[in-house]
Amino acid sequence: MKNKIVQQFVETYHLYEDDAIQQIQLQHRFSLVKAFNLQPGMRILEIGCGQGDTTMALAHIVGDSGFVKAIDIASGDYGAPMTLQEAHENIQKSPLGSRIEFQLDTDFLSLDTTEQYDAIVFSHCSWYFHDEAQLLQYFEHARSMTSQLCFAEWDTTYHTHEQSSHFFAVTILALFSQYVDNDGNIQAVFTKKHIQKLLNQANFTNCTLTEVDASYLQDGAWEQDYANSIQSEFSDAPPLIQTLLDALYDNMNTVQQPQSLNSFVIIAR
């Protein structure tokens, strides 16, 4: 499943030409960036860039006259099957490389507020945060560096039975992070209402909310598989939590062809 924008991107930059999975992921990132309503020539800061999926879409949209600084608190050896460093090196070798500066092992709160950006982007990174207070600190720091914050995350409101498995998997993995120390991508779950509240507290008072289809992505199936793989690690959880988990697993595994949750996008000013 590859749309015209992704096909043109792959042919232009010779990135992920033989990687069908990555091309599907890119399709969603382009949909998110379109919803962000960014313009050519913008100077963008991306928080929690990961392997650079959204970074590539951002760099494409801002064009030759634009710039994307992409930071992540993780180290270069994080990630599989490709590490962050390997993914970034691959992107930097492409014609997009001159528009992008990757910076790993970097806490956003350590950046000087004299660095100003046309927009700061948080794309599918908020569930790595451990609590609201930590995320609020990031939003407050962002407020001093930009007039526009663009935010995207999974929407926990599912619309079909097939999407429900992703929701149940997310719930299981959020519980897992409360009982077992891990570096997984779900440490806490924030809904769109949580995010809007935190943005308002950080003095982003004008928030526009939209929904972006993501049901075709593989993430729902991946999270279901991962949730099943760690079920035995809940052995020390209290009996009532075990009962809750049994219900979550039963509901999750009734879905034979899981779909991903959609994403919600907030543009905050």
UniProtKB/TrEMBL annotation:
Keyword vocabulary terms for this entry: Methyltransferase, Transferase
Occurrences of domain Methyltransferase (ranges): 39-158
Family matches, as Gene3D superfamilies: Vaccinia Virus protein VP39
- Which CDD domains does the protein's record reference? AdoMet_MTases
Say yes or no: keyword Glycosyltransferase present: no
Q: What InterPro entries would the database entry show?
A: Methyltranfer_dom, SAM-dependent_MTases_sf
**What GO molecular functions are on record for this protein?**
methyltransferase activity
The GO annotation for biological process reads: methylation
Q: Out of the domains of life, which is the source?
A: Bacteria
Protein name per the record: SAM-dependent methyltransferase
What organism is this sequence from?
Candidatus Kurthia intestinigallinarum
The uppermost taxa in this organism's lineage are:
Bacteria, Bacillati, Bacillota, Bacilli, Bacillales
